[in-house]
Amino acid sequence: MMQQVGKWIDERSGAGEVWQKLFKRKIPRGVNFLYTFGAATMFIFMLQILTGIILAMYYANTPEHAYDSVLYISNEVALGWLVRGLHHWGASAMVVVVVLHGAVVFYLGAYRYPRELTWVVGIFTLLVVIGFSFTGYLLPWDEKAYWATVVGTNMAGTVPFAGNFMLLLLRGGAEIGAVSLARFYALHTLLLPALAVLLVGIHLYLVVKHGVSVPPWIWDEDEKKRKVVR
Amino acid sequence: MSVKKGEGMSRRSFLGYITGAIVGVVGAVVAIPVVGAFISPTLKKTASGTWEKLGPLSKFALNEPRITGISLVKKDGWIETKTPRLVWVIRTGEQGFKVFNAQCTHLGCIVDYVAENKTFNSPCHGGVFSTEDGRVLGGPPPRGLDTLEYKIEDGELVVNYQDFRMGIPERIPA
Question: Is residue B88 part of a domain?
Answer without folding.
Answer: yes
